[in-house]
Structures are given as C-alpha cells and as structure tokens.
Amino acid sequence: MVKAKKFVLRKHPEGLPKSTDFKLVEEELPPLKENEVLTEAVFLSVDPYMRAYMSTLSLDTTMIGSQVAKIIESRNPKYPVGKYIVGQFGWRTHTITDGASAAGSGPLIVLPDLGDLPLSLGLGVLGMPGNTAYFGFLEICLPKVGETVVVSGAAGAVGSHVGQIAKIKGCKVIGIAGTDEKGKWLTKELGFDHFINYKTQNVGEELKKVAPEGVHCYFDNVGGEISITVMNQMKMYGRVAVCGAISSYNEKETPKVTSPFRPIIFQQLKVEGLYVTRWNDRWMEGINQNLQWIKQGKLKYHETVTEGFQNIFNAFVDMMNGGNTGKAIVKV
Ligand SMILES: NC(=O)C1=CN([C@@H]2O[C@H](COP(=O)(O)OP(=O)(O)OC[C@H]3O[C@@H](n4cnc5c(N)ncnc54)[C@H](OP(=O)(O)O)[C@@H]3O)[C@@H](O)[C@H]2O)C=CC1
Ligand SMILES: CCCCCC(=O)/C=C/[C@H]1[C@H](O)CC(=O)[C@@H]1CCCCCCC(=O)O
C-alpha cells in the first residue's frame, strides 16, 4: 500500500498566499485497476497561473500543478515502468492515473530521451512554458529580422525563452525585469540587447533611450502600467502577445490601469491573448524545436531549484516575489 502526500487548499488566499492557506495530508492509494499506472513525483513545477486559479478551486481539493513523475507500477502497456511522464497531477508525491487526466495543461507526455539534459526541463524550456514562448511569440508576434521586441517578465521561464527566440530570429531585444542581477544574466549570458529594471528605473524614459525607433513586438507577461507604457511606444501596426498579467494575480480587486485604447487605436496595434493549449495538436513540434536549439547552443536555460516536496509552498511564493531566475522548480 502506497501513501501519497499532498497539499490541499484549506482557505482561498487573500493577497499573497500564506502557508496556512494549505494543509499537508496523507492519502492511502488503492491497488491499480486495469489501464492504470502509479507514478512518483520527481520534480514539481511552481507557476504563476496557480495563483490565478486558486480562487476558483473548491476547498479541500489538491492544489493544481504539473510534475515530472516516474512510473513505478503499471497496468497500462502505453506507460511502462521506469518511464518518466509529465502530468497535471497537482502538489502530490504519488498519483494513480489512466493517462487521461492531463486536464488543462497540454497532453500527458512520456518524456523523450533527453540525453544528458535534466528531466526537470520537461516542466520548463521543454514543457508548457517553453511551448508558450515558442508558439506564443512566433505565431502572434510574427517577428521579422531587424525588428525591435520588448519582453516583460524577461528573466522568468517564458520571458527568458521568448527573448532568446527573438534573437534567433534576428531581432533587437529589450527585457524588462525586477533586479540588476537578472539584467546581467539577460544581456551577458542570453544575448539580450538591453535591460530595464522596472523597480529602479523609469520604464518609459529608458525605453525611449534604447529603442528610439519604436517597438514592433511586445510579449506581455505582466500586464498593468508596464504594459501600457510599452504599448505607448509601439510602432504603427505593432503586434502584442498578451500571455500573462502576473502584476495583478495577488490583487483582490481588478486593478485600475491607464486605458490602452489610445495606442491600440492610433498605432493600429494588433493585440491578441493566448493560451498555450491552443497549440496542443502541435505540442511536440515546440518541444523538438526547443530541444534542437538547446543542442545547437542557441537556447540557454536556468532553473531555480528548491529541494524537498514539503517546501513547495515556499518555492511558489518565492517565484511570485521574483526569487526565481529562469524556471522555478521543486526537486522532491
Ligand atoms: N497564456 C499562457 O498560456 C501562459 C501564460 N503564462 C504567463 O506568463 C507569465 C510568466 O510566467 P512564467 O514564466 O512561468 O513565470 P516567471 O518564471 O516569469 O516567474 C514570475 C516572475 O514574475 C515577476 N513578477 C512578479 N510580480 C511582478 C509584478 N508585479 N510586475 C512585474 N513582474 C512581476 C517576477 O520577476 P521580477 O523579478 O522580474 O519581478 C517573477 O520572477 C505569467 O504571467 C504567466 O501567468 C505562463 C504560461 C502559459
Ligand atoms: C488571468 C489568469 C491568466 C493565467 C495565464 C496562465 O498562466 C495560463 C497558464 C495555462 C497554460 O496555458 C496551460 C497551463 O497549463 C496553464 C493553466 C493550467 C490550469 C490547469 C487547471 C486544471 C485543473 O483545474 O486541474
């Protein structure tokens, strides 16, 4: 008999979540039925969407999230023992699944052979955030050689990846993030052309200095005033990919921000929201392209790893507070 540990939602958080909003419980798992497999979590992902979805979850349900898990028992020939899969199993150590429980998060993936690369990449650059960057940027921003691209949330999982694809496509890239260390990583390691620290600099003034030509594409991970400021400096027919709005996820009330309609109308911007599951039917195309770019040395990644399943809440809050560079991961 296997005992799973899991975090359930005890209270809907107000503002930044507190550890007391969650409860660690144990659950005895039954024997497997035909077609089912038993998995053991190896790496868990902490992502901003978790905060946005928390308020919609019923109390006492397992906190949502994806993980890389090892199949440790199987009654399903499609999922043999020893293979690693990426599944939307939540904040839990052990899971029984029949393979059909990948709700909301892209298909249940048996990880391809990653060679020397860490399996945790299946939650980042070779997983949902990587595909968000790949499809969201290329399909919505439609970048062209020589164009100027701005990325907010630039040092995170999605943003750091978008900026590098923009460089691969021959663009000038400006990243906006919250610390100078992140800025150094973006410009010195990843090849971003410029960095703006939104906490210590005036984004509008700095942007005028580094992109006097105007911005062709904006990949928006944060929303709020940063995004309005960037949109006000966009070129005619600029393209905006609205990927996330982390600046508002902890807010109780929908924040009041400056209206974006002036630049949208006068600059005739194309503003499009995206949800990466739109490209579920092309999922492996994104994974394979990103893997190829890593092997070619064109795409770099960084992970901020927290050790211990019991520390997943701390890892989540740390990520929401900007403690991560690249992808935030928990190693069980
Ligand atoms: N639409 C879709 O399908 C998907 C959307 N997303 C969205 O993409 C965005 C990035 O996700 P992901 O790469 O996983 O997360 P990140 O790895 O970027 O981590 C979150 C980062 O957000 C930054 N941040 C926190 N608060 C604020 C704020 N008030 N203003 C500006 N930046 C802030 C912090 O960096 P800093 O130090 O710079 O403040 C933090 O490190 C999120 O909005 C997420 O919801 C992600 C995946 C799929
Ligand atoms: C206002 C909220 C915006 C959130 C944007 C975001 O980060 C979306 C991320 C999703 C991505 O498109 C695919 C995912 O895996 C993320 C959401 C997954 C939610 C699964 C919920 C399913 C469940 O209830 O178990």
UniProtKB/TrEMBL annotation:
<keyword id="KW-0521">NADP</keyword>
<dbReference type="InterPro" id="IPR045010">
    <property type="entry name" value="MDR_fam"/>
</dbReference>
<dbReference type="GO" id="GO:0006693">
    <property type="term" value="P:prostaglandin metabolic process"/>
</dbReference>
<comment type="similarity">
    <text>Belongs to the NADP-dependent oxidoreductase L4BD family.</text>
</comment>
<dbReference type="InterPro" id="IPR020843">
    <property type="entry name" value="ER"/>
</dbReference>
<dbReference type="Pfam" id="PF16884">
    <property type="entry name" value="ADH_N_2"/>
</dbReference>
<keyword id="KW-0379">Hydroxylation</keyword>
<feature type="domain" description="Enoyl reductase (ER)">
    <location>
        <begin position="15"/>
        <end position="330"/>
    </location>
</feature>
<dbReference type="Pfam" id="PF00107">
    <property type="entry name" value="ADH_zinc_N"/>
</dbReference>
<keyword id="KW-0644">Prostaglandin metabolism</keyword>
<dbReference type="InterPro" id="IPR041694">
    <property type="entry name" value="ADH_N_2"/>
</dbReference>
<keyword id="KW-0597">Phosphoprotein</keyword>
<keyword id="KW-0560">Oxidoreductase</keyword>
<keyword id="KW-0443">Lipid metabolism</keyword>
<dbReference type="InterPro" id="IPR036291">
    <property type="entry name" value="NAD(P)-bd_dom_sf"/>
</dbReference>
<keyword id="KW-0963">Cytoplasm</keyword>
<dbReference type="GO" id="GO:0005737">
    <property type="term" value="C:cytoplasm"/>
</dbReference>
<keyword id="KW-0276">Fatty acid metabolism</keyword>
<dbReference type="GO" id="GO:0047522">
    <property type="term" value="F:15-oxoprostaglandin 13-reductase [NAD(P)+] activity"/>
</dbReference>
<comment type="subunit">
    <text>Monomer or homodimer.</text>
</comment>
<dbReference type="InterPro" id="IPR013149">
    <property type="entry name" value="ADH-like_C"/>
</dbReference>
<keyword id="KW-0007">Acetylation</keyword>
<dbReference type="GO" id="GO:0032440">
    <property type="term" value="F:2-alkenal reductase [NAD(P)H] activity"/>
</dbReference>
<protein>
    <recommendedName>
        <fullName>Prostaglandin reductase 1</fullName>
        <ecNumber>1.3.1.48</ecNumber>
        <ecNumber>1.3.1.74</ecNumber>
    </recommendedName>
</protein>
<dbReference type="InterPro" id="IPR014190">
    <property type="entry name" value="PTGR1"/>
</dbReference>
<dbReference type="InterPro" id="IPR011032">
    <property type="entry name" value="GroES-like_sf"/>
</dbReference>
